[in-house]
Amino acid sequence: MTEIILNTNNIQDIKKYGGRYKKTSKKGLFDEDVYMKKKNGKKLFIYKLAKDFYCISRRRGSYSINAYLEAEDIESSNGWIFYKGWMNWQKYDSVSAKILREPEPQPKPESTDEDDENKPAKHVVVYSKYHNINGGYSLGNGVYFNAEDNMYLYYKSCKWFISNNPNSSRFFMCSDFTEENSPENADWTKSGLVVKRHQGTINDISLEEQNDLFCDKDFDANNDSLGELVQQEVSWIRGSRLQPSDSYMTLFHYVEPNDIMQGALGDCWLLAALSSIAEFPKYFQDKIFKTNKISENGKYDISLYDASISDWITVTIDDRIPCNKKTRWFETPRPLFAQPNENELYILLLEKAFAKVAGSYSKLSGGYPALAWLTLTGCEELAFWHKNKNLWEKRHIAIEKTKKDPFNFQNMWLYGSHIKNNDKDLFNYMKICDENNYLVSAAICGEVMEARRSDGLVERHAYSVICVFEKDDLKLVQLRNPWGNDVEWNGEWCDNCKNWKNMPKLRRELEHNKDDDGLFWMSWEDFSNIFDDIQICAINMKKT
User: By CB neighbour count within 10 A (0-12 exposed, 13-18 middle, 19+ buried), where does 393 fall?
Assistant: First the structure.
């Protein structure tokens, strides 16, 4: 057993403590296994402070802790208790830890560049805001050297140092005191650096060495599959090779809306649709993916709804993903289009399946969330609300016309109705949609695709509507930008709004946080004044 997963069930306040913790080489005070998670240079440890008392802390063995479990067995269902601030501790019965058994060892290809994790890394990558320090360092004669910036990384006097001269007493950065024989295991927090071991070879990841894996000749790794809008040089990389340097790829981890971030392609409509469905974690695993784990031969079968025959079809793809061309050996291959959160592959594969049925990746540039929901759920009850002056007019999607070309996601046929709602009535309807777990998205009209506004919103850009909330006279709407970054609403009820500080009970009830994750709240009044279009798929996702 080398790892544990702490499942925080995507609870925003404690989400940062969840995930994979790797077993360290040193035992704890009670001869227990000690586990560590390291992300963005910050560490968290799980260990015992008493025989039946596990805890989480930022320092191994510290009595200053962030959470604890009163149990002798780390997999106990007793529930973890987390520190909430101001001497306040809260128990979460749903939080639990699970031990991961060691997978069967896979044969490693012969390579002169192979890296043994028990020995000093042959290559490390230093992440720094200083360009002359940031980059790749290779080991030679006991010293790491960054040829691009003529910089050295070396061990001396119980510290790791970075300098332009390993024989000089002057240096730019250093680690804390350490006995670690490889620099990525040292603590660089005070220097503001992140140092990671570079896995595998320093050569580009080539598809030539993967000819024994499945290749989908109907949607090949070539320019035809990319389409006419993609003009840059591309590397096609197997999805299983896209993992962060401290992890490995998995098909699903904990499915959540934050898994989905947009890349270079203008397919926010698709990613907003996927983000909405990700609110119901089991759906993709149970309904969409026939291949429900990482495929050893790179072949995946995915179920999509073909409206032209009113039935589900199986779309077979391989896991060759278009990525930005690497220009330096230490760069991590980065998908050109959808960006997964951490090490989950399912988003990239879903986007590729949509690109295949559409004809190319370029044909995903611009589209409608409702058409994505039709393809993913089979629900043909789709509605489109458009604001005209002070009233919202309901339009229906002409499903019979859509069925003639169901995978043309860039065109949507609509016909009008006599149904009109004012802002108050539409809010009540939106609440019903939320209570029934319908899929909802919203957009702002504009002249230019994805034009940024001064209020932090983006025109002609699809947002997922996550929650509709009403309490007393307060009406709020929660949305998510599929870019998954800090491009968020900056008006009233935004992440930094003083209302959250002034209303702590509401903040806890809505599990509000300030992460730059594209998720934000705004008042219904602001929403209805700014947004022009709302798309709804009337399917109860909790009953699917």
Answer: middle
Residue showing tokens 């469905």: 277
* Residue 493 main-chain phi, psi, to 5 deg: 75, 15
CA 206/CA 235 separation, integer angstroms: 8
Write the CB contacts of 103 (distance below 8 Å, at least 6 apart in sequence): none
Q: Give the pLDDT confidence of 497-534 residue by residue, as tens digits.
A: 999 999 999 999 998 988 888 899 999 999 999 999 99
- The encoded tokens of residue 506 equal 């509401």
Residue 286 lies in a domain: no
111 occurs within a structural domain: no
CA gap 534, 40 in Å, rounded: 37
On whether both 346 and 475 belong to a single domain, the answer is: no
CA pseudo-torsion sign 74, 76, 77, 80: negative
Residues 176 and 228 in one domain: no
* Separation between Cα atoms, residue 431 and residue 538, nearest integer Å: 13
Q: What is the pLDDT of residue 208?
A: 45
**How many separate domains does the chain show?**
4
Report yes or no on whether pTM surpasses 0.85. Answer: no
What is the rounded distance in angstroms from the CA atom of residue 267 to the CA atom of residue 485? 16
